[in-house]
Amino acid sequence: MATTKWKLDPAHSEIKFKAKHLMISHVTGEFTSFDSELETDGDNFETGKVTVTAKVDSIVTGADQRDTHLKSDDFFNSEQFPDVKFVGTGLKKKSEGEYTLTGNLTIRDITKPITLHVEAGGIITDPWGQVKAGFTVTGKVSRKEYGLKWNAVTETGGVVVGDEIKILAEVQYTRQ
Prior knowledge:
Elements: E1 3-8, E2 14-21, E3 25-31, E4 34-41, E5 44-55, E6 59-60, H1 64-71, E7 83-95, E8 98-107, E9 110-125, E10 131-142, E11 161-175
Antiparallel strand pairs: 1-4, 1-11, 2-3, 2-11, 3-6, 4-5, 5-7, 7-8, 8-9, 9-10, 10-11
């Protein structure tokens, strides 16, 4: 079967993350600059090869001081490690429209395997004749496993930033 290339549609895609703050609520952030490459056999996404690269300097959380701190060596160290990268190693169908995506996530200089949940939104031809495919991707990682270890203890003994980081990506691709 012929290889199909898919180009990410950045105007209709987003990569967000959530971290527990003071152990009572979540703070949401996002990468505003990212790219992805996807190749499939025809329209069979189970055979797909996907890579995603996000620019650390594009982190936005709604607070400039927090964004600067996240880009510092306490967290991502954007100067030395400008990208966060995911390379998929397999996609397995769980049920109609539900998949498990395995791959390797690299943050700083640390690469670890992760498993993500994928909901396939479907394939459709838009009003301009372009074939589009949409996906919702969710998962979670331990930030400490990737060297993002900064924290502080509150007066009550809690921590400022939780270890578990939730990932939520909405991605749309255009068939080339």
